[in-house]
Structure formats: C-alpha cells, structure tokens
Amino acid sequence: MANTEISPATVIHPRPRLGWLDALRGVAALVVVYEHALNPLYPELRGVTGPWFAAGWYGVIVFFLVSGYVIPASLERRGSVAGFWIGRGFRLYPLWAVVVGDALLLAVTGIDGIHVWLTDRPVTAVLAHLTMLQDLLNAPNVVNVLWTLSYEMAFYLLATALFVAGRHRRSAEVAAGFGVLAVAAGGVLPMTLLTRTGPTLATTLAAIALAGCGLAGALSSRAVARRAGAVALAVLTLGLIAVNSRIPAWQSLTILATMFAGTALYRAEAGQISWRRAGLLAGGVPVAAVAAAMLWHTEDPLPWVVAIVAAWATFAAGMLLAHRDVPALWAWLGTVSYSVYLIHPILLEIVDGFLDDPAAVAWPYRAGLGVLVVAALLGCAALTYRIVEAPAQRLGRRIASRYQDGRPMSRQRV
C-alpha cells in the first residue's frame, strides 16, 4: 500500500441505520446530569440510588460504547488519517474551549475553586489540557467531565495506529485482550507511575512529542515511517493507560475494552466479521468488566457492576430497535448531547455556589430549581450547538475534504 488513503469501498460496508445511537447519547447525557445534580440539589437521593447503581459510570459506559461503534467507522470511511483528525478536532475543541473558558471565569469570580496544581503548574496544565490527555498525565481537570475526553483521545490514537498498521479489523481481539488484561493485572498495575507527585512538564512534552511523531509517521507515504508512527501511538497510549491513569488500571483497561467492543459490534452489524466472533470476543468484555470489578474494586463493587450490566443492556436494546424510527426529542437530545455533557457542570457549579446546604432547603423549591436548571441547560445546549458546534463541524468537513494523507488534494472549491 503506497499510502494511508484507502478507498472507502474496500474498507467499510454500507452504514447501518444510526439514529438509535442519538437516542442512546441522549439517555446517557441525562443520566450523567442526574448523577452530578445529586450533591448540589438532591443529596438525599444519593443514599437511595448510590448503594446499588453508579449512574455516572452507566452514562459514560454508554457513551464509550457509542464512540466505539462510530469512531473507527468514521476513520475508515474517510480513508484518510488527516481527514479524520481534522474532523475530530473541529468536533471537539471549539465547544471544549468555550466550556474551559467558562470554568476559568467561575474560578476568577470565586464561584468555584480550582486545583492548586493548575495554578502552581500553569504551563503544564495548559499543555496537558490541549492534548486532551490531561487525565492520563495526572493534571486535574478544569471541568470534571473532561476526564472522559482523555479516554476518547486515547481511543482515537489507538484506532489510528491499528488503521495505519492494517490491523483495524481486529477490534474484537483487541477488546478481548484489554478485557483479559483488566482481570489479570488491573489491580496490580501502578497508578500515575510517571507523574506520582503531580503533572510534570517533561512528561507532558514527551507525550506531545510522541503523539506528534506518531501522527506525522501515520501521514507519511513511506511504509517504514507509517509503521514507526503506529508503534509510537500505541506505545504512548498503552503506557499512559496501563501505568499513569488517575483511575485504577482495571477501570482504564475496561474502558478501552468497552470501546473496542463497540467497534466489533459495528463490524458484525456491517458484515465485516461474524456475529459468532463478535459474540465470543467482544461479548466477553462485560463479563471481564464485572469480573475485574469483583476482583479489584476496593469498595463495594455492586454499583459498578449494575452500571456495567445496565449500560450493555441499554446498548443491546438500542441495537435490537435500530430499525425503528427514533422519536424527534431523543434524536435532538443526541444531537446536542456533547453540549449537554460539557455545559451541565458549569450550571451546577453556579447552583452549588448559592445553596450551601441543599438538604436544608424545602423539596418543592429544589424540585423547581432542578426544572429551571434542566430548561436552562437544554436552552444553552441548543444555542451552543447552533452557534459553536454546527458551524465548526461544517468548517471541519470542508477542510477535511480537501486533504488526503495530510496533503491538499486540489485547489477546487468545496
């Protein structure tokens, strides 16, 4: 293969109907909002649902399954590493920049505090956040939900490495491998091994250099450079996931196993691999996740286990109902789910700043306040999607369409 540009027809089968994924995104976003609304508004409910159901983990696992299902397919349909990363950049960073700016404004005004490492090590913190790998570089997140974007970015890097190396059809095997590793070694691998005393500039710069070299190699027309690029991306990602994650390795490995399992399910649905192969390998991921939780969780594993089972059951139900039309409301919620996900912590921090002791406030007042917060959140999400997300995505598609393996295709208008 002379370069990484591949005809989409040779890589991917026609897309299954994907409207059901919008509904799942909407469900996941609202459940995460519920989880984060408990402390500032309804602390009593945490004692009701918390002992048996980790709502936040349920939401992000559904998100990870959806990402696994669609992201590698997007890369392969494009057939271009450059086009894929341009599209991802314009999809994620514009709204991310708006929300990070809002969070910093809350810190400046004193409404919300900020971690000391972000002020003592500002250059490191900024660079780590710009990579979106900050959670794997032990830099505290400016906004709490940004931690999941670190795993999204790690998944993109690994998906790119597999694509460049020509191993992208091995998603089911990769998922099973991460699942087995989570069970076998997830509790003994060290956390934050490289940045135990906090984020360091040297580690952050090394990660940036390795990622940059890896992506540059992936865009090369030379086979040796492409292979080297794939190795660099894999080494960076696997190293950070296995020994430098802020969360225990069994959880980090389970997340990647989940995402690649989503990819394997896509391949089975698209006819690229057999359902038997997907079922035996990717289908074993939730089993491995439950086993890892039972074996390595230092607290009661029940909430985590219920979240895993519920998330997979939700995704399976979505796949079974994929042929049905999605209600317009849920489709819309899925469309604005990224805005909902990133914006809701900002609104809840504002609420938290006004309610010192929410349990002392009458329920009707808090219930009404919750309705106002949801209404404001959906209004803000609709606005940011319209003026930030959608224009940025259109611009990203226009720019990506002009590039082939990082080089301009032509000067024609697009």
Rg, Cα atoms, Å? 21 Å
H/E series: HHHHHHHHHHHHHHHHHHEE
Give the overall shape. globular
- Computed structural class: mainly alpha
Poorly predicted regions? 1-16, 409-414
Helix content: over 70%
Rounded mean pLDDT is: 91
Trace the largest sheet across and list its strands: 1-2
The fraction of residues in strands falls at under 5%
Give the biggest beta sheet.
2 strands, antiparallel
Number of helices: 18
Describe the structure concisely for a colleague.
This protein is 72% helix and 1% strand. The chain has 414 residues and is mainly alpha-helical.
Report on the architecture of this protein.
With 414 residues, this protein is mainly alpha-helical. The chain contains 18 helices and two strands. Strand 1 (403-404) and strand 2 (407-408) form a beta hairpin. Helix 8 (147-164) runs parallel beside helix 10. The two termini are 28 Å apart.
Question: What topology emerges from the helices and strands here?
Answer:
Blueprint: H1 8-11, H2 19-41, H3 43-49, H4 55-78, H5 81-109, H6 116-120, H7 122-131, H8 147-164, H9 171-185, H10 201-218, H11 223-243, H12 249-269, H13 275-281, H14 285-296, H15 302-320, H16 328-335, H17 337-354, H18 363-400, E1 403-404, E2 407-408
Antiparallel strand pairs: 1-2
Helix pairs in contact: 2-3, 2-4, 2-15, 2-16, 2-17, 4-8, 4-12, 4-15, 5-17, 5-18, 7-10, 8-10, 8-11, 9-12, 9-14, 10-11, 12-13, 12-14, 14-15, 17-18
